[in-house]
Amino acid sequence: MKKDIALRLTPQEASDEKFYKPLVAKKMKVSPDKITAIRVRKRSIDARQRQVMVQLYLDVYVNSPAPDPEKTVFEYQDVSSKPEVIVIGAGPGGLFTALRLIELGYKPIVLERGKSISDRKKDIALLNRNHPVNPESNYAFGEGGAGTFSDGKLYTRSTKRGDFKKILNVLHFHGAQDDILIDSHPHIGTDKLPGVIKSMRESIINSGGEVLFNSCVSDLLIEDAQVKGVVLKDCAKIYGVAVVLATGHSARDVYEMLHQKSIEVEAKTWAMGVRVEHPQELIDQIQYHNPEGRGPYLPAASYSFSCQIEDRGVYSFCMCPGGFIVPAMTGENEMVVNGMSPSKRNSPFANSGMVVEIRPEDIPAEFKKYGVLAGLEYQKEVERLCFINGGNNLVAPAQRLTDFVDSKLSFDLPETSYVPGAIASPLHFVLPEGISKRLQGGFKQFGKWAKGFIDPEAIVMGTESRTSSPVRIPRDPVSMQHKQIKGLFPCGEGAGYAGGIASSAIDGERCAEAVARMIGGQ
After folding, report:
1. Which of 25, 292, 368, 470 could form a disulfide with 32 if both were Cys (CB 3.0 to 4.6 A apart)?
2. What homologous superfamily is domain 84-265+473-519 in, according to CATH?
């Protein structure tokens, strides 16, 4: 007999079957020795009250053997001789587009401007040692996209638009840990995700698809308002029946190329701000309501804050418990930071983006001459200002959080996880006033909700500017094709339709299905 059981337990009770098996037996009114197996179906933490609790949803087997654990298996067909679809970008949007195309019977040709995982790791190691950024191989560009080396969180709110469970199963099939199938906020980690991404690439190649690195697209081949293929920087031409544009939020050259070709792009709302870092122990104390911290049975605590300051949203973004701040610029004279967490989330630091909503009408007048690309130029300027006020290299401008809120210069800085280093700088003055003043108001509000959040051992660092792109590539909501160009499918975070690994993956699957509908309707 199998029965579904829900239990609300203390962290210790939920940590091991030896603790919760007697509680299951008591609830079911059976002897513990009658229970043959217990499997966790779902797990979540509730830290809203002073006593932190863990919710477990269990499959319990009584007086009968449990079947072998189910594992979804994906058998990708041979598509080597099928119609070819070009997928630009090997981030989550592009990779999931490619795998879904294979399932639907089409051959993907994935073009990635950056390097493979193993080669990309070498460039990132140099970046962390304050070497100049490689504009094609960094924390944003390369196999797996920005998510590979910036945390690997899988939470999404876009489940109404696609099958989130399938996304998790695909990642699990390609090597992600079992926990992502049961945790309410699944996380793979930057140490585990590269192996998963490499396995996905192998699935594409083994099925007859292609994955080409160091293949930066510089132009589109268009005839009679229909895309026929692409041109690479080395002038090579590649043809396909459709093109999926999954280039990520930092491929500014793509937006500029489209704009120059009079292919419509549009300005959109995005966000910029800083990355804030606290000692993880402090965040544990605040979030778990315990001066002793999280103890032996709870994971590193996270947080999520949002409020309105002067009619604009101020919110936390990409919170990384037990993580590190990393350099995320993609070109010279830029200062951009991001966050990441390994799978164990065992760093002594917690960091998060803290950003302010920016609407097209908020962009200063001097950038209006750039038209729909004004947001890109404004974003570049803020990054340049932080570069100048840092070390004119990868050393980041930074300030104690208490000083930032009080508009004071920091005379020294607390310890930070940011390896290239930080230098005291008046970020409250360096950042545009519309951003800094709202951030100050947001921090004060968050400090009221989370007592102790505004702490002198917390550091703010600039700039967190790549939350998303200030530009969207418009598409028809039904066909998912560009409104002007048949066969061109904007996809994922760079196209302005998703954010993060899971959402971009879902959007990639939807784009693949839209490609199949277009080809089938020809």
Report:
1. 25
2. FAD/NAD(P)-binding domain (3.50.50.60)
Q: What is the pLDDT of residue 71?
A: 84
Please say whether the beta carbons of 90 and 201 come within 8 A: yes
Q: Is the peptide bond before 463 cis (omega within 30 degrees of 0)?
A: yes
- Domain edges within the chain: 2-62, 84-265+473-519, 269-464
> Does position 154 have pLDDT exceeding 80, yes or no?
no
Among 121, 107, 146, smallest CA distance to 492 is for 146
- Cα dihedral sign, 265-271-273-276: negative
Q: Global pTM?
A: 0.95
**Whole-number Å distance between alpha carbons of 274 and 105:** 44
Q: What share of the chain is helix, strand, coil (3-state, %, to 5)?
A: 35, 25, 40
Question: Residues 498, 250, 186, CA angle at the centre, nearest 5°?
Answer: 45
pLDDT at 101 over 50: yes
pLDDT of residue 476: 96
282 compared with 146, residue with greater pLDDT = 282
Q: Report the chain's mean pLDDT, rounded to a whole number.
A: 94
pLDDT over 50 at 159, yes or no: no
Q: For residues 37 and 83, what is the distance between their CA atoms, to the nearest angstrom?
A: 48
Do residues 94 and 246 lie in contact, with contact meaning Cβ atoms separated by under 8 Å?
yes
CA distances from 135 to 6, 356, 374, 461 (A): 50, 27, 22, 22
Q: What is the CATH number of domain 2-62?
A: 3.30.70.2700
